[in-house]
Design brief:
Strands 1, 2, 3 and 4 form a four-stranded antiparallel β-sheet that branches. A hairpin with a 5-residue loop joins β3 and β4. The protein is α+β, with helices and mostly antiparallel strands. It has two domains: 1-46, no CATH class; 48-103, no CATH class. The protein contains one helix and four strands; from the N terminus they run αββββ.
Length: 106
């Protein structure tokens, strides 16, 4: 189910602060709603933690998942795969991410 953009009240034209405020609120709300709609439809562009490689930040804990923002087919003929993302399997000083692979059948 897609979320629709709400209709905000139109402020008096002479009140420039209110006009600017309503305009900015419409932009922010539209951005949030667009991202939520893309998330519910499964678009990777809506995932804020998608990266090109496994993270090396201390912000992640065991079980955290980071999606691969640029998956490409890898491997040798008959055993090709795509790295969908990485899952954190150890936190602390020696943070470890393991590839989440998907075989392509090629």
């Amino acid at each position: 189910m897609r979320i629709q953009r709400p209709q905000l009240p139109v402020p008096p034209a002479k009140d420039t602060f209110s006009v600017d405020l309503v305009f900015k609120l419409k932009q922010i709300i539209a951005s949030i709603i667009d991202q939520l709609n893309r998330l519910t439809e499964g678009h990777i562009a809506a995932v804020t933690n998608a990266q090109l490689e496994p993270p090396n930040s201390e912000l992640y804990q065991v079980g955290d998942y980071v999606r691969n923002s640029y998956p490409v087919e890898q491997g040798t003929r008959g055993a090709r795969y795509v790295v969908k993302g990485w899952i954190c399997v150890a936190d602390g000083v020696h943070r470890t991410f393991v590839e989440d692979r998907c075989l392509t059948g090629n």
